[in-house]
What we know:
By secondary structure, the protein is α+β, with helices and mostly antiparallel strands. The protein folds into two domains: 1-64, no CATH class; 68-143, Arylsulfatase, C-terminal domain (2-Layer Sandwich), CATH 3.30.1120. Helix content is 18%, strand content 14%. It is built from three helices and six strands. A four-stranded antiparallel β-sheet has the order 1-2-3-6, with helices on one face. Strands 4-5 form a two-stranded antiparallel ribbon. The protein is globular and about 45 Å long. The two termini are 35 Å apart. The mean pLDDT is 87.
Amino acid sequence: MRVPCVMRWPGTIPAGVTCSEVCTTMDLMPTFAGLAGTQPPQDRTIDGHDILPILRGDGGAASPYRAFYYYHMEQLHAVRSGRWKLHVPVENRRTFHGEQIEIGDGLLFDLDSDPGETTNVYDQHPDVVAELMALAEQARGELGDTGRQGSGFRPAGHYPDPTPRVLE
Length: 168
């Protein structure tokens, strides 16, 4: 999952710079809180991080994520750490790049050389698979997975009885 983000802040964010560090929209609230001279709420877990050093292009600024987890609803689908992304076996997997994927198939990609995730290198890197599976188990222990609630489970935000808003 790669989504472009364009930011402009003359004198703070260097112009014309590209960054490949893993960041997410979850990082915006803690970053904006820091810029405002305050902190995110301390009475709950906040999943994002202050990424201002990355935005400023500070030397050595790196992603705050040792691992990044890809969930769909409450089901863990993949874990990324550095250059590696492991798609964990999941229930009800339908297709991957248009191909049927059987439950239990291992999918590991080297995102540095294959950002489009076209070449499965699962069998060539059992040590990486083991490391990422251990990270997946940590996520399952904290955040949960289908049929398993983690110790730090946080439900998605919900607004009761939402109504659409339109401009007239």
